[in-house]
Design brief:
This protein is mostly beta strands. The chain has one domain (3-172). Helix content is 11%, strand content 39%. It has 1 helix and 13 strands, in the order αβββββββββββββ. The protein has one helix at residues 3-21; strands at residues 37-38, 46-53, 65-72, 82-91, 101-108, 117-120, 123-125, 128-130, 133-137, 144-145, 148-155, 160-163, 169-172. The chain has a 5-stranded antiparallel beta sheet, with no helix packed on it. The chain has a 4-stranded antiparallel beta sheet with strand order 6-9-11-12, with no helix packed on it.
Length: 178
């Protein structure tokens, strides 16, 4: 085997072996979430942000559903949390002291562009309030931002996070005027 072939083999082994050494039960994949009740969360993940969605009229239905972002908080408080998953879920026990969520859909968080952040619950679609939307948005000084790069909407009936054309979405800049 030539020296360059040996180098390629070593590089491939360094990349492949760590992935192979993780037990299948510990790998976090979409299928690990759908149908699962949270919390508890998979090892190493925690809820970073989320929003309740009403499933019907009246206070009894205020938090029938939710959209949450799961990820990792670094041990260094100066570093930003790392969002990994967006999950849609249904409340399975309103009487519980801590909400229990049956996950209906899960998608990996796409890699954000510089300056964009995930926003949940305060966006609109075609100018109509849409608390069931999660989007990557970049804010400036305006009260409403139309600079949206990616969006999903929680279809409550289907239990899925469906794509929404980003050009149809705008989001409230909650820091405007501060």
């Amino acid at each position: 085997m030539s020296t360059s072939s040996q180098r390629v083999a070593c590089i491939l082994a360094a990349l492949v072996l760590p992935a192979m050494s993780v037990p299948a039960s510990d790998r976090i994949e979409r299928g690990n979430f759908v149908g699962r009740t949270l919390p508890p969360y998979p090892a190493g993940l925690q809820e970073l942000q989320g929003a309740c969605l009403a499933g019907g009229p009246g206070i009894a239905h205020v938090c029938d559903h939710s959209i949450a972002v799961l990820g990792h908080r670094p041990s260094d408080p100066a570093r930003q949390p790392v969002a990994r998953w967006i999950v849609s879920s249904r409340n399975v026990d309103r009487a519980a002291r801590q909400p229990r969520w049956l996950v209906t859909d899960a998608i990996e968080v796409p890699k954000p562009r510089a300056g964009y952040e995930l926003q949940i619950g305060t966006c609109r679609v075609d100018g109509v309030d849409a608390p069931d939307v999660v989007a990557f948005v970049r804010h400036r000084d305006d009260e409403i931002s139309r600079d949206v790069r990616w969006a999903r909407r929680y279809d409550l009936a289907a239990g899925k996070l469906a794509p929404v054309e980003a050009r149809r979405v705008d989001c409230i800049n909650e820091a405007a005027g501060l």
